[in-house]
Specification:
The complex is a heterodimer of chains A (about 550) and B (about 170). Chain A has about 550 residues and is mostly helical. Chain A has 17 helices and no strands. Chain A is globular. Chain B contains 2 helices and 11 strands. In chain B, strands 1, 2, 3, 4, 6 and 9 form a 6-stranded mixed β-sheet that branches. A 5-stranded mixed β-sheet of chain B has the order 5-11-10-7-8. Chain B starts with a helix and ends in a 6-residue tail after the last helix. The chains are: A mainly alpha (about 550), B alpha+beta (about 170).
Amino acid sequence: MDNAVEKKLALTHFWVAFGAFGLAAVMGLYQVIERSGFFGFLESREVYYASVSTHGVLMGFVLTTFFIMGFGYYVANTTLKLPVWNKTFAWTGFGVALTGVVLAALPLLLGQASVLFTFYPPLMAHPIFYIGATLLVVGSWFWCVSMIVMYMQWKKANPGQPVPLAMFATTANAILWLWTSAGVATEVLFQLIPWALGWIDTIDAGLARTLFAWTLHPIVYFWLIPTYTAFYTLVPKQAGGFLFSDEMARAAFILLVVFSLPIGFHHLYMDPEQAHGWKILHAVGTFVVTLPTFITGFTVIASLEIAGRLNGGKGLFGWIATLPWNNPMVLAIILGLLMLIFGGFGGLVNASYAMNAMVHNTAWISGHFHLIFGGTTIIMYFGIAYYFWPILTGKSLYCPSMAIAQLWSWFIGMVIMTTPWHILGLLGQPRRIDSVNYNNLLTISWEPYEVTMIFGGLILVISAGMLVYNLYKTQLGSESYQGEVEYAEPIHAVKDLPGYLNSFTLWNVIIGVFMLIAFGYPILQFFLMETFGSGRWGV
Amino acid sequence: MHIDKLEKNWAGISLGIAGLFVAVILGSAFFHGIHAPSNVETIDSAKLHLSAEFAEDKLGVQRNPNGSVTVRMVAGRYGFYPKDLTLPAETAITFRWVSLDVIHGVHMPMTNMSTMIVPGYVAQVTTELHHAGDYPLLCNEYCGMGHAHMWSNIKVVSKAQWDALNTQGGANHG
């Protein structure tokens, strides 16, 4: 298969993703040092908040979106054995998204968009920031269309056949993202941009938060699905085994898409503008969406066990030692699952309607999402990168042992950085503070943790540098490599797949109904009651 | 379609775990009345100084005939006003919060007094404070360059002490 263009397309997306990642990692280190207050000459709240805003946008929106797009194009190409549909269209999407990033970066770096990546109005950023963010999302919609078109092309040519699992998951993600991004797109297009440009004078902060909450939960599943795709379809093969169950994997992806959408109000538990009945409804949905993760944990660990036993592992736990720990993708999943256990536990606390009051908006929350997003999700992006880079560049990985050291150091750094944040949260420290100024003895108990997090940040930056350096040197390398992505086979071949596990039509209807129930009245209420908007506030 | 027996069992166990969590949450919400702050009450944040409830002289602690206490506070960059309050322990206290500018959040560490304060809305939290001591009220949502400087103070004293302070007329330093 001649897929040189697909390789270039994927690699170009990946470089934007990891370039943004490298830059954002350095900002992260600056932030833990600045906020500790131990280095007076570094202290500047203007620089700190510009940095936090940029770090969030780069990690949360740029790294993820570009990685997901590049990964999706290459998965579609290699699983379906089809060329990427309309390459001009795909490159246009890339160009639109990249233009958006550059536009948004200008006000961010100039301190004109220090509203953080959640941009809660009535804090107002420069209009170019909102326009840039919109273009990034619009560019990603090009990718969604590409994925759905290729999925339909394949289904038409192979009627009744099960869509390859990796592509099924990728299409699920494209559909998820279209539903997900509708919330923030509505906020930006109908509230933020007209308001920032002066076409309307006031903005309803309650409505804006409700629309943002529409997006804020499923977006983390948009980020997570490539990681889960690798868990199911790449890791078992790399570990030397088979996928335990193809059908349960499909069920898990469908549950993720359907139930991650109508549950965003767990971000609004502490908000005054939504009534508690709606919050409880979303709380129940939040626990339903733990099911696909429980299932994923079981299926991928069962798949690893098969591999470990095929490698000669004996006894109850002997198979763990016989896993190929020196394979980057296998190591990434082991470390990723460890972080998922702790991060998932924290997530259950946050999801618990009333218990959340103890940790809401404290450093605990920053610790939680750094562990589960920066940890579990991103470490698998690294695993995928180490596997894909030789395939995409045609050059052997520059230094496999550096890759292993990088994954370990990322895990260790993340644990050292996020454990203090969890503790600080329980000790009452608010998130998003640039320094500790409070006139209270409580803050003395925070100091040891402020020191510890610096070491975590330092290890993470070194680790990030090792990743980018290794990928860069691989590309420049001289030792050529021939290979293509190999997908794991299930132990039981998939046959007689029911239509509902091979198509999204029914699920889209169900999502539509769920969203109408979960968000219909909560959005409509703002137009039924007398509300009072807010004017424009700088930072 | 092939679904392994182990998988079916595990799916059942997972459903049981999630169901247990949901049951505990619903139980605490509906039988013990433990809810997140959710009163959906609007107010014009630009006209607080003219409002019947949140004009400057109305802020602070109010004792209710049934023995409970209502506290009215305005959040604004960078503080919660009035800045210093003394409150009784073991007493039902209803906090009513409004913002005069942007979104803020407030919590008292080691208590469950926590809410977002969104301009345009009144946030209401009812709780009891069990331990006497000096507590900070901390802003926990980024609200501008001075976010880390946004705090106020609450002193919690025993009910008897608080009653004594009140008869002397000095409990609300607001």
